[in-house]
Amino acid sequence: MSWLPLDTWIVVTGALCAAACALLGNFLVLRKMSMMGDAISHAVLPGLAIAFLLTGSRSSIAMFIGAALVGVMTAVFTQWIGKFGNVERGASMGIVFTTLFALGLLLIVKGADHVDLDPGCVLYGALELTPLDPGFTLSGFGLTLTVPRATAVLSGIFLLNLGCILLFYKELKISSFDPELATTLGIDARWMHYLLMTLVAITAVAAFEAVGSIIVIAMLIVPAASAYLLTHRLSTMILLSLVFGVAAAVLGHISAITVPHWFGFSDTSTSGMMAVVSGVLFGLVVLLSPNQGLLFRSRRTGKAG
Amino acid sequence: MPAHPPGDPVASHPLQIRDLTVAYQRKPVIWDIDLKIDAGRLVAIVGPNGAGKSTLLKAALDLIPKSSGEVLMFGQSYSQVRKRIGYVPQRESVDWDFPVSALDVVTMGTYGRLGWFRPVNRRVKARAMEALDRVGLADYAHRQISQLSGGQQQRTFLARALAQDADLYFMDEPFAAVDAATEQAIVALLKDLKANHKTCLVVHHDLATVPQYFDWTVLLNMRVVASGPTETVFLEANLRKTYGGKLDLLAQAAEAVRKLQ
User: Fold this and answer.
1) Which range marks the domain in which residue B90 is found?
2) Fold of domain A5-133+145-213
3) Which of A183, A210, B59, B139, by CA, is between 20 and 30 Å from A293?
4) CATH assignment at residue B100
5) Any idea where the domains of chain A sit in the sequence?
6) Do B94 and A173 touch (CB under 8 A)?
7) B98 and A228 in contact by Cβ < 8 A?
């Protein structure tokens, strides 16, 4: 295994993406709407396509706005269909996001086929290529550092998510635990829901380019789900989810450039390996968690009270 | 606490409901509700399943839309007096596996007064701890909520309402499936609130204890069948009107009425 500056950028970019997603994932998992992340990360596709067709550019700003709008629309439509169509939430989510995703695919294939916005790239991303797209150069202390564009964008998204969670910590906590009480206290749970959905949409669109929408789903759900099994405190859960996300990026990339060689293959996709590693880490947590792990369960004397 | 001159007619009615109708998908759930509740009352809201008891509470608290009618609290609309209103939802309405401690849950009661963005501070934590102590759970403050018994969970919810420091409380079935110790703790708490001129509206399902615990009774079955001091309202004829032909409940009620006499 040879480690180049390129590899460092890949890991940093993957870690930022995983951490940005994991932060939001905690609240999705606790609100029992993990699949909303799945739905939104697919449904942003028509937003991207329409923004592209309207502006004719792959400018990140237009795409952010388009995707964020469609992401929030996914949440709104899901609510409406559930309410007026008398359908359970999982089903209404399925209706909305498959329809929007299909619409997005059609728009891309029909309208934007001649440009570099292909569905394969949307699904799987190209984390390995991100260091080749220099964003800007920092210089100082006699050193110059060229930060890849995706790394810079994902740093911004990570800081945005972190900032929102710090700023709205108690509001997110109460509206996730007891939305009705939150609303009676003047913390409208619907607005917190849409804030979260907007952040998920923005994160999904920022991350899709670098790592693809599949990994966004994995990073939204798996690190938070692993963290949930290890603690009884929300703040600890959020910190642990970050640890799991970053670990997935580091171990994922190392595995991607080593494991296939053991079997005589060449390097594999880092984002794919990140998802595999998260799954493996989750499996270990399920087996080994001190409070809820399968290995310890037989020794426990049962719940108090 | 906002000052109201004694004898002020506005202050004397913590809750006033006029012509309230709520419908789900155009089917009315509660109809033409008119209620006027005096300060310092312990009010039982009693009626069969599907009578619209929880709906009445939620509509009053703007959690579900009203089809028509008006709800005034201390003479003002709910959004103007939010900070004076406490709410205890049904225990099953939340996920008790949520990663928070009993103290965290009680502290949530103070979020409304804290306001947006302001983080939880030591003063607020101390108030939450005091509320937990009042329901006898100080020793359980740092337990994760799934490790509490059903009765302890219910008391945690009541402590959270205490931490809200409200003047008018809405409680949805606080006595549902609790142990005898919790039931006594809740009754003591209600008496305490009454002694401090707080007003409590409590959805209650156990007819036998209505006369014992509550001094005002609202009989509800989509409409208000009767509302008034428990001794004048909690009568067999009224209960029969409220519950229709459900005989086992009526037998319970008859016994409760007999005890009262």
Assistant:
1) 15-260
2) ABC transporter involved in vitamin B12 uptake, BtuC (1.10.3470)
3) B139
4) 3.40.50.300
5) 5-133+145-213
6) no
7) no
Q: DSSP letter at A265?
A: -
- B6: in domain: no
Taking an 8 Å cut-off on Cβ atoms, the answer to whether B143 and A304 are in contact is: yes
Distance from the Cα of B150 to chain A's closest Cα (Å) equals 9
| Mean pLDDT, residues B190-208 | 92
B138: left (phi over 0), alpha (psi -120 to 50) or beta: alpha
Chain A residue at shortest CA distance from B62: A184
Please state, in angstroms and rounded to a whole number, the distance separating the CA atoms of residues A131 and A103: 31
Q: Is A300 at the interface with chain B, CB within 8 A?
A: no
Sites in chain A below the pLDDT cut of 70: 1, 57-60, 112-125, 209-210, 291-305
**How many other C-beta atoms lie within 10 A of the C-beta of residue A226?**
28
Question: What sign does the CA torsion over B84, B88, B89, B95 have?
Answer: positive
Encode pLDDT of A50-102 as tens digits.
887 887 766 667 777 888 888 888 888 888 888 787 788 888 888 898 999 88
ipTM score assigned to the predicted complex: 0.86
Domain-located, residue B3: no
Kindly determine whether residue A185 and residue B111, on different chains, have CB atoms separated by under 8 Å.
yes
- Quick one: which of B247, B230, B224 has its CA closest to B52? B224
Is A149 an interface residue toward B (CB < 8 Å)? no
Does the residue B43 lie in any domain? yes
pLDDT tens for each residue of B66-78:
999 999 999 889 9
Closest CA to A211 of A22, A10, A50: A10
Dihedral, CA of residue A285, residue A24, residue A173 and residue A39, to nearest 10: -100
Structure tokens given for A12: 């940093």
* Structural domains in chain B (count): 1
The answer for B 153-212 residues in CB contact with A (under 8 A) is 160, 164
- HSE-up of residue A172 (Cα within 13 Å, Cβ side): 25
